[in-house]
């Protein structure tokens, strides 16, 4: 199975890389040094790229070739009140969550029956004070995938939206650390992979 994990140097992406060790594994991320180290650990190919740049995304997907599984683990958190948030924060959230997914789907090639996994968010967890920009980016991603799913299904490709509770990754570092009871990245990856290969393929997987 040929697998591409984007955002592989994050906590969740790294957990998927380790869980899928042994497959024809391609890893992408922006931190080339950490990416190369992880690739050596799991026997994968490292393909550094900034997926918010469409040209880099296109080059990455051309090099990756036809995929059986795509795990889009790219993400970024940011907190600011609506009166404090500047354009930079809003654009940063949209670029990290929506643009990267849009560029990947635009340029990816898939084998028949492939699955492409993206991470949304439970509204009750993110539609809270200070997270308006983050919540908007996640909501935009979910709406984009809902429309894209119908198009890709004609090609035999299944888009799967995953909603996870809080996962203890570095994403929480700027926010003071993960909340109590957060899943470990390894547990989150295991639960997603357990549900991903059911038949029929779930359009929405809530963990």
Question: Your description of this structure?
Answer:
The protein is α/β, with parallel strands linked by helices. It has one domain: 3-Layer(aba) Sandwich (Rossmann fold), CATH 3.40.50.720. The chain has 7 helices and 7 strands. It has helices at 11-19, 32-42, 54-64, 87-107, 123-126, 132-153, 185-196, and strands spanning 2-6, 24-28, 45-46, 67-72, 110-119, 158-163, 204-206. A 7-stranded parallel sheet has the order 3-2-1-4-5-6-7, with helices on both faces. It is globular, with a radius of gyration of 16 Å. The two termini are 24 Å apart. The model has no long low-confidence stretch (mean pLDDT 94).
């Amino acid at each position: 199975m040929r697998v591409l994990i984007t955002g592989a140097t994050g906590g969740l992406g790294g957990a998927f890389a380790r869980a899928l060790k042994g497959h024809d594994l391609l890893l992408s991320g922006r931190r080339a040094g950490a990416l190369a180290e992880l690739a050596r650990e799991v026997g994968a190919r490292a393909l550094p790229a900034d997926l918010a740049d469409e040209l880099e995304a296109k080059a990455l997907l051309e090099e990756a070739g036809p995929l059986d599984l795509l795990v889009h683990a790219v993400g970024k958190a940011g907190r600011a009140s609506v009166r404090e948030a500047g354009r930079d924060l809003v654009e940063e959230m949209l670029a990290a969550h929506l643009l990267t997914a849009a560029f990947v789907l635009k340029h990816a090639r898939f084998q028949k029956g492939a699955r492409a996994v993206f991470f949304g968010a439970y509204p009750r967890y993110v539609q809270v004070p200070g997270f308006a920009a983050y919540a908007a980016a996640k909501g935009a991603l979910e709406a984009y995938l809902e429309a894209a799913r119908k198009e890709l299904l004609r090609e035999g490709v299944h888009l799967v939206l995953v909603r996870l509770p809080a996962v203890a990754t570095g994403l929480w570092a700027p926010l003071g650390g993960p909340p109590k009871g957060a899943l470990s990245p390894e547990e989150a990856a295991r639960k997603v992979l357990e549900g991903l290969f059911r038949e029929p393929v779930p359009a929405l997987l809530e963990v």
